[in-house]
Amino acid sequence: MLESTVWRQYHSENNFREKLAEFSHIEIGEIVANDKDLYNILKAKLTKKELKLFAMDSANVSDAEMMAAFSYDAEALKEAKYKVYKKLKQDKMRASLKAVKFDEVE
């Protein structure tokens, strides 16, 4: 499952849950449990470039490689990273990533 995703191009396993918990400041147990659903939320909330940048940056790809991949200069790359991580910390993104508990809905 999820073998042909942007994330798997740069990571050997689907460890985006851990990275999301780290950057969005959500406990890992509170994040949507199904990997496919979680990845679909990411695809819906981030642009293709932002998702690829997040995958590359969390895989510790060098800035030079990222600048070449996106045709950015150093300042544009810095700004793009800032936007991605800012988006991950926003309340509406955090709310989307959290699993809804049925007892909270009642």
SSE order, one letter for each helix or strand = HHHHHHHH
Number of helices: 8
Rg over alpha carbons: 14 Å
Q: Based on DSSP secondary structure assignment, what is the total number of beta strands?
A: 0
Distance between the termini: 33 Å
Largest sheet: none
Strand content bin: under 5%
Mean pLDDT: 88
Structural class: mainly alpha
Number of domains: 1
Please give the share of residues in helix. 55-70%
Shape annotation: globular
List unreliable stretches of 5+ residues. Answer: 102-106
Tell me briefly what this model is.
It contains eight helices and no strands.
Provide the descriptors you would attach to this structure in a database record.
single chain; 106 residues; mainly alpha; globular; disordered C terminus
What does this protein look like?
This protein has 106 residues and is mainly alpha-helical. The chain has one domain. Helix 4 packs across helix 6. The longest helix is centred in the C-terminal third of the chain and has 16 residues. The protein is globular, with a radius of gyration of 14 Å. The C terminus is likely disordered.
